[in-house]
Amino acid sequence: MSKCSKAGRDFFAVTADGFLMSFDAQRSLDKWVDIKASAAYALSVTDTHIACACAEGVVRLFKAPTLEYISTLPRPPPFRPAGAALPDKVAAAASSKAFPDAIAVRLTSDNKRAGCVYADRSFFVWDLRDGRYAPSPVSHEFTP
Q1: Predicted TM-score of the model (pTM)
Q2: By residue range, what is the domain housing residue 20?
Q3: For the chain, which terminal residue's Cβ has fewer other Cβ atoms within 10 angstroms, N or C?
C-alpha cells in the first residue's frame, strides 16, 4: 500500500512484512522504519501524521516528515465468532487474546480522529486529541 502526501513532495509505502518507507521527490528511498508488527495492510497520510493498520489489531502513528513513532492506538476487543455464546471453544479463544487484524485506517485532515476497520467487520473511531488515544463513543460492529 502506498500514499502521496497532500503537498506531493513525499511518497510513503508500507510493506506486507511491516516496514514503513518514505521516498523523496525523485522517488529514492529516503527513510524507513520497522513498524514492529508481523504484517501491515494499509496506511493513511496527512501532512503531519501517518497511521499504519497492522496485524493483530495494531494501529501505529508516526510523524509524516520524520517517521518518528508517536503512539499505538488501543486494540479492539478480542476476536469472537459472530453470534457465538461463550462455551468451551470460544472461551478458550477469548482467553488467548486473538485480536482481529486492522485492515483499513483513515485519519481526519485535522488529525483529531482515526477510523479503523478490522477483519472481524468491526469499525471504531478513535479520538486522538487527548494524548491517551481513548476510543470515542462512536463504534459499530456488523454481524450477519
Answers
A1: 0.76
A2: 2-141
A3: C
